[in-house]
Amino acid sequence: MKANMTTFKLLAALLFAATLSVSNVHASTITVMNNNDSGPNSLRDAIATASAGDMIQFAAAVTGVITLTSSELLINKSITISGPGANILAVDGNHARRVFHITSGNTVTISGLSITNGNAGNSFGGGIFNDISGGSATLTLSNCTVSGNRAASIGGGICNVAVHGSATLGQSLADAGLVDRYHLLVFPLLLGAGKRLFSEADKDATRLKLVDHAAYSNGIQKQVFDVVR
After folding, report:
1. Theoretical Cys-Cys bridge with 120: which of 1, 151, 202, 220, CB 3.0 to 4.6 Å?
2. How far is 13 from 23, CA to CA, in rounded Å?
3. Using CA atoms, how far apart are residues 153 and 13, in angstroms rounded to an integer?
4. pLDDT tens digits in sequence order for the chain, 229 residues long
5. What's this model's pTM, rounded to 2 decimal places?
């Protein structure tokens, strides 16, 4: 009986230690303190030191432009970047490099920034390249301006290669006026519930033009629509 009580006390102590350890693990907020391309307290430094789930914000003094002079900003973890407003702070690719590159498998939210003057050269996404080559990547843009970016391939502003099943990104891009074409597959099945394809944002109607259509033997229909500007 004494041995059993000792075992119970040891197990209880281990469980308490594990609970305490888990409770101390939480997301952090990292503050960018300057407009430098790199170095301590820069945006690049904040992205590099952040852990998955962290939020990056900006000190009140960080306004104007963060000009990238070395390389693109690589985001290889799931984080949130919360800017002060697209009219207050811009991240500028200096007409020489892509601004943001988000690697596959991550969920990233960017808000309150202007993303401008990115240049991907012969690659994809001058402003943002959201890489879904590994199967998935979720990007949400909120209150951002994406302008003045270029890419010789596709996606001067934003390239997601193709939005396959990413309703969140599709809604964000549509709300920002960055979708030029929809490829829709209609399945002959009613589920009664599901995720919205289009957002509930209060905006003017978007006119679509049917440019391609196909019906397959399994009942699936493909419809391709261009957005009428």
Report:
1. 151
2. 15
3. 59
4. 444 443 333 333 333 333 333 334 568 999 999 999 999 999 999 999 999 999 999 999 999 999 999 999 999 999 999 999 999 999 999 999 999 999 988 999 999 999 999 999 888 889 999 887 666 678 888 899 999 999 876 678 888 755 554 566 677 777 777 677 777 878 887 777 766 777 777 777 888 999 888 888 888 888 888 888 7
5. 0.64
User: Shortest CA distance to 172 belongs to which of 90, 107, 220?
Assistant: 107
Secondary structure in 3-state letters for the chain = CHHHHHHHHHHHHHHHHHHHHHHCCCCCEEEECCCCCCCCCCHHHHHHHCCCCCEEEECCCCCEEEECCCCCEEECCCCEEECCCCCCEEEECCCCCCCEEECCCCEEEEECCEEECCECCCCCCCCEEECCCCCCCEEEEECCEEECCECCCCCCCEECCCCCCCHHHHHHHHHCCCCCEEEEEECCCCCCCCCCCCCCCCCCCCCEEEEEEEECCCCCEEEEEEECC
What is the CA angle 95-96-97, rounded to 5?
110
> Two tokens at 104?
């596959």
Sign of the torsion angle spanned by Cα atoms 180, 192, 109, 73: negative
- Closest C-alpha to 71, from 50, 92, 97, 40: 97
